[in-house]
Design brief:
The radius of gyration is 17 Å and the shape is globular. The chain has 239 residues and is an alpha/beta fold. It starts with a helix and ends in a 5-residue tail after the last helix. The protein contains nine helices and eight strands. Helix 2 links the parallel strand 1 (31-35) and strand 2 (54-57). The longest helix is centred in the first third of the chain and has 19 residues, at 5-23. The protein has an eight-stranded parallel beta sheet. The protein has a single domain, classed as Alanine racemase (TIM Barrel, Alpha-Beta Barrel). It has helices at residues 5-23, 41-49, 60-73, 95-98, 111-124, 150-157, 182-198, 216-221, 231-234, and strands at residues 31-35, 54-57, 83-86, 104-108, 128-133, 163-169, 207-209, 226-229.
Length: 239
Amino acid sequence: MPYTFEDRIKLVEDRIMKACERSGRRRNEVQIIAVTKYVSLDMTKSALEHGFHHLGENRWQDAQEKWETISEQVDSEADNQPIWHFIGSLQSNKVKDVIGKFTYMHSLDRLSLAEAIDKRASQLGITVPCFIQVNVSGENTKQGISPEELVPFVAQLSRCKSINPIGLMTMAPFEAEPEQTRPVFKALRELRDEMQKKSEHGSTITQLSMGMSNDFEVAIEEGATWIRLGTILVGKEEE
């Protein structure tokens, strides 16, 4: 793997472009979330300076210093204003720390969490765009609702007026051969398409958050609109 950040950006962009070409998609249909959970504040700032405005973190205690420092240092009108994505599992009692700071939630997986997010968002007078996490692979180690639970879960979300379900998210098993993840990503896309036909929220559930450093090309070929790239893009720094 190239050693400089610029080299990694070039490599990733080239691979995204080729995946888009293979699947007949336009490059602007795919957004990158730079997952900064394993890197320093300085590297996170560098990602912003290189145009990666969408930043992903999975625990508030790890993200807090970055969020607070960058919020203080970056002008709210600046071009490099960060847009934070919470991509990890969230406990209901941590909602107060996250909602209002992170624009997007990628791990909505139970009604109790939805109700906690809705309550906090209502207090703040905001609406939170959320991805519903679906455990397509059925792995015990993965979070998310089952595919069979999706339709009734979305119906229940209609009570949460401060939540906007914009899409679905999944994590595929780590495979030595990324092609083996294709059935997972294909299944999530098909679930999204089914939701658009069946649910009153169908018109809003358009996005697919899927694909990480090991398998993002296959995810793009299967319709990913958001890919979550950590090690392959920003690297990984040891504490």
